[in-house]
Write a structure and sequence with these properties.
heterodimer, A: mainly alpha, two-stranded antiparallel ribbon, 2 strands, 2% strand, disordered N terminus, B: alpha+beta, 5-stranded mixed sheet, 30% helix
Chain lengths: 247, 252
């Protein structure tokens, strides 16, 4: 909340186009639909993992094979020995239905966003590092500023800094495609048509394990993202993403 | 500004109208080409229909991955299952000599097959993966007769769209569309890893649908019904799975 006071009390120059929205309507709608879908996918994905909280590498894995690791949680099926002495209720049915439904919505809104972003220059103008920042010096100074927990300047309410740009590009063009890919690589029907999708990952169980780790990376992003929103000024940043206005 | 709003309103209205007409046309086309799953109702119907329709279009003729014998999982996993029924135990006591697979419904020549009859057909072998919706999997060599061979023997009628199949346990039944039923890898398996199909893996007879998750590969198959509609079976959702909250189509 301190950050929002900082933004509001500052009187330094603000870009002339204060009437323009910080985030366009499409970005805002896509953002919040993604939030909803991600939350649904995360909860249902966890529910599905609970039915077999063991992970493997390669093509196959089951209770008779050595796991890569096992999560220290009780399972929702009695096949897995967890040491807890009880079995959690099975939630896989609706979890699987909702997981794929949310995935479809995410794919559609993601495609819409990416096509729109390419056509309007959103990525080029708003997310690719500005020319001045395309150097190791700029990169290391951005890291140093972050490590010193330097609060963002007010002008940054209108534009992303270098690390934000790189992170968002990584999430949009690396993590989300990879989480979709590793998800599809677990589908026996999908890989019958596109076997390379699973073969290059090292097998169906490898795909499942990678799906789990990409999810962890996305959760890590979410935590840092929300943390930084609070740090930079929660109400100002939330207002910008809900109404489009910075203040 | 008001001019702009009006134009926007008209455009939006036209787009919405086109969308509704488009949806209606899409639905008719989808019905005609069999792209609507029986469990398309309810709040998850949209996602389920998208999954089934897209995978059906993408995978109509694709083959499940086959593996080398060195990739077979040892020891083979026999997962948990409901207790064997008395009817099963009686047949088991007789060495499954009286086990029958009855095939009826929309077929020209309804028939009942003994295991020996099924084994007299040209046998096929495949090394494929069985994948459970829980997340585990194993690879085995399956030995049996393609379902399409049995369906040819009974002569499915042209209007057939689904095959409903039942375990000896009356609560356990599933169905697949004709694309999967006639698929060369959809198999009535009676052998595994060079021996008889063990009881724990569905012996003496199990359906294998390797392009779908394990719960479509029903164990202890005793009868099948060929049909043009799933409405009259159970609650009309296609199989026991959607009645228990699981998707009818398990390609993912």
């Amino acid at each position: 909340m301190g950050g929002s006071a900082y933004v509001a009390s500052s009187t330094s120059a603000v870009p002339a186009a204060t009437v323009a929205a910080r985030h366009s309507a499409l970005v805002r709608v896509a953002h919040w639909i993604t939030v909803l879908c991600f939350f649904a996918l995360l909860v249902t994905g966890l529910e599905i993992v609970v039915s077999h909280p063991r992970f493997y590498w390669g093509e196959t894995g089951n209770v008779l094979t050595h796991p890569l690791f096992q999560l220290p949680i009780p399972a929702s099926r009695s096949l897995v020995q967890t040491g807890y002495g009880y079995v959690m209720p099975d939630q896989n049915g609706w979890s699987r239905y909702l997981h794929f439904q949310a995935a479809w919505v995410l794919v559609f809104i993601g495609l819409l966003y990416v096509i729109w972003g390419l056509l309007t220059g959103h990525f080029r103008k708003g997310l690719f590092p500005v020319p001045a920042d395309r150097s190791w010096t700029a990169f290391s100074s951005a890291i140093a500023n972050h490590l010193r927990f330097q609060r963002p300047r007010e002008s940054e309410a209108w534009s992303y800094n270098l690390l934000q740009r790189l992170t968002y590009l990584f999430v949009i063009f690396i993590l989300f495609p990879f989480v979709i890919w590793t998800g599809l690589a677990m589908s026996p029907a999908f890989v019958s048509a596109v076997p390379a999708a699973v073969n290059v990952l090292g097998g169906q169980q490898s795909a499942r394990t990678l799906h789990f780790f990409v999810t962890l990376a996305l959760v890590l992003f979410l935590l840092v993202h929300v943390g930084m929103i609070c740090f930079a000024g929660f109400s100002s940043r939330m207002r910008a993403m809900i109404t489009g206005r910075v203040r | 500004m008001s001019n702009f709003s009006r134009r926007k309103l008209i455009t939006t209205g036209l787009a919405a109208a086109a969308g509704v007409v488009g949806l209606g046309a899409t639905e008719r086309i989808a019905q005609r080409y069999g792209l609507i799953p029986p469990d398309h109702g309810g709040i998850y119907g949209l996602g389920e229909t998208l999954t089934y329709a897209s995978q059906r279009l993408l995978t109509r003729h694709s083959l499940a991955r086959e593996f080398s014998p060195s990739q077979i999982s040892h020891p083979p996993l026999a997962n948990e299952m409901p207790p064997l029924t008395d009817a099963y135990k009686r047949l088991q006591a007789g060495g499954f000599a009286d086990w029958r697979l009855a095939v009826g419904g929309m077929v020209a020549r309804p028939a009942s097959f003994s295991l020996d009859q099924l084994k007299s057909y040209p046998s096929h072998t495949q090394v494929t993966m069985l994948q459970c919706e829980e997340g585990w999997s194993y690879i085995a060599e399956w030995n049996g007769v393609p379902l399409s061979h049995v369906l040819d023997a009974v002569g499915t009628l042209p209007q057939a769209r689904y095959v409903v199949y039942y375990s000896i346990d009356p609560d356990w039944w599933e169905s697949i569309d004709m694309a999967d039923a006639l698929h060369p890898q959809t198999f009535l398996a009676y052998g595994m890893n060079g021996g008889e199909l063990p009881v724990g893996n569905g012996g003496p007879l199990r359906l294998r649908v390797p392009r779908q998750l394990g719960y479509k590969s029903v164990k202890f198959i005793t009868h099948m019904t060929v049909t043009d509609s799933l409405k009259g079976f159970g609650k009309g959702l296609g199989s026991a799975s959607p009645e228990g909250g699981y998707a009818w189509y398990a390609g993912i």
